[in-house]
Write a structure and sequence with these properties.
About 85% of the residues lie in helices and about 0% in strands. The protein is mostly helical. It is rod-shaped, with a radius of gyration of 34 Å. The N and C termini lie far apart (about 110 Å).
């Protein structure tokens, strides 16, 4: 059975289009992976900042409690 030149050229065109789309998807997937890595790093940085703020709030609350405790022990007319 002889080869059909039209079918052969259509198959070649489809193959090229498939490969082009596959390459584009690979590039886009690479970009998405890169963006995801950047987002993960930013989340890690935000986690550290939130943790530092939590510690600062805890210290400030402890200081407020200490100051209020000292005030409670004082006489109102002492000054």
């Amino acid at each position: 059975m002889p080869e059909d030149p039209i079918a052969h050229s259509e198959l070649a065109a489809l193959t090229r289009r498939f490969e082009e789309v596959a390459e584009r998807h690979d590039r886009e997937f690479g970009i998405i992976k890169s963006d995801l890595t950047a987002v993960r790093l930013q989340i890690g940085n935000l986690d550290q900042k939130v943790e530092a703020l939590d510690k600062k709030i805890d210290r400030n609350q402890a200081q407020i409690i200490e100051l209020l405790t000292q005030l409670v022990g004082q006489r109102p007319d002492a000054g």
